[in-house]
Amino acid sequence: MTAPALDVRGLAFAYPDGHQALFGVDLTVGAGERVALLGPNGAGKTTLVLHLNGVLTAGAGTVSVGGLRVERTSLPEVRRRVGIVFQDPDDQLFMGTVRDDVAFGPANLGLRGRELDARVVEALDRVGMTAYADRPPHHLSFGQRRRVAVATVLTMRPQVLVLDEPSSNLDPASRRELADIVRSLEETVLVVTHDLPYALELCPRAVVLADGHVVADGPTRDVLLDEPLMRANRLELPFGFDPAAIDSLPR
């Protein structure tokens, strides 16, 4: 039987100051799923995500990626398998050209020559940025930089792509373009967001984290229509959003 893309079991974690951020979190995500991770600020979403590629290590419990347990000896391969696209693309883009930024990861693993060039072209093509390969990243729009940031992760050929607030600061056209890219991905995608309509658009499944616990896990449509759940966890649809747009979706 194929191992799940992500398998989190009994994950608990406390920071050095004593703050307990996660309390026995269980989460399984199958290969190719797109899942929204929702919750108010301070819920533990970032802490959970940082365990997925070993930036943080579990105080208790286990995390596995494609059957590989996250532990000190497996970190290089885990970090290849799980790519995180940060909220601010400038945290990931630091080279002189788009091409160099996208090549940086696989070059660090020893790829050279035609194989490296092919990886870069493939990744840029997947995000529609091939024509910008020789441009300095800081000359691009914010939306274009975010797409390049996605390419820097895709070029590592990850199994899991984590997108942190992917729609933030995007104009409507850039938001739509990124949504089209995300829907085209074959990789497992975890979308961490406060943008509930975007979660509904991209992710058939939603997981709600609150105070370090998973408090809901189900179809995104059902989660967003659960008014007591939404109210209890400080989740709000934007003003003017028509709930009928959710209710009309197929169950």
UniProtKB/TrEMBL annotation:
Q: Does the keyword Transport apply?
A: yes
Q: Which CDD domains match?
A: ABC_cobalt_CbiO_domain1
Task: Outline the extent of the ABC transporter domain.
Answer: 6-236
Keyword line: ATP-binding, Cell membrane, Membrane, Nucleotide-binding, Translocase, Transport
The topology of this chain with respect to the membrane is: Peripheral membrane protein
| Molecular function, one GO term | ATP binding
Q: Has UniProt tagged this entry with the keyword Membrane?
A: yes
Compartments where found: Cell membrane
Q: Which PANTHER family match?
A: ENERGY-COUPLING FACTOR TRANSPORTER ATP-BINDING PROTEIN ECFA1, HEAVY METAL TRANSPORTER
Biological role: Probably part of an ABC transporter complex. Responsible for energy coupling to the transport system. Part of an ABC transporter complex. Responsible for energy coupling to the transport system.
For this chain, the family text in UniProt reads: Belongs to the ABC transporter superfamily.
Q: What is this protein called?
A: ABC transporter ATP-binding protein
Species the sequence originates in: Nocardioides marinquilinus
